[in-house]
Amino acid sequence: MDNPEMIYSGFASIYDRLMQDIPYQGWVDYLGRLFERHEIRPGDILDIGCGTGNVTIPLAEMGYNLTGIDISPEMLAVAEEKARSKGLKIKWIQQDMKEMDLGSLQFDLVVSMTDSLNYLQGEQELRQVFTGVKALLRSGGWFVFDLNSYYKIQEVFGNHVFTLLEDDIAYIWENTFDHDTNACLINLTFFVRERDGKYRRFSEQHREMGYETDKVCDLLAESGFRVEAVYAEGTFKGPGGKTERIYFVARRSV
Questions:
Q1: pLDDT per residue over 180-225, tens digit each?
Q2: Where are the alpha helices (DSSP H) in 19-97?
Q3: How far apart are alpha carbons 44 and 39 in whole angstroms?
Q4: For residue 5, how many other CB atoms are within 10 A of its CB?
Q5: 28: how many CB neighbours lie within 10 A of its CB?
Q6: In angstroms, how far is the first alpha carbon of the chain from the final one?
Q7: Considering the entire predicted model, what is its pTM?
Q8: Fold of 152-208
């Protein structure tokens, strides 16, 4: 797999274009309903794996004080420009979520959306992030995140190939699922038309892990969290066998 800091390096400039059909606002609206249901009243929110700010920025527009962390400087540059154009003051920090060091900063809520945590390579890394999140939360603070389900990683991504062909951009997305490691290797090849009419080709390799829901809950408990709820995407019902995105709501125990 590519160096983590290189993931999304070429992709960043076209990420929002390719993700324009993703229902980010719907996800943020769902977070708002989730806050109400669990009486989460955050002032300071940390978004880890924030990417180009598609969740961070709408949360800031709701009046919360946001900080965004991502490992990709290219993705953060896009996020910063988008926030600046809206007149929003958001702190953007380039860090690996496995090694977060924010000095004296503390938060009421940490969120991680758009399956960012699926990029963690194994239970040890997941536990490492959970422990780091706990250290950044104030007493009684909340941790809300989503994961692509094991079903989605294995069956929807699986060993399938996806393609896109438009006048100025195209990609080939090739997946390989490894049953021994529960990982899906994602090979992306992009073709982007430049101003001179020629096409620039570049490739990236990503790797998403599939995690069983019960194991994630166990790791949260081991890391000092109380799991308040586990929901299927967009609902307040538990996930089913073919749920593709799962939301976890946890609270710092002590």
A1: 999 999 999 999 999 999 999 989 999 999 999 999 999 999 999 9
A2: 24-38, 56-61, 73-85
A3: 15
A4: 13
A5: 19
A6: 37
A7: 0.93
A8: N-terminal domain of TfIIb (2.20.25)
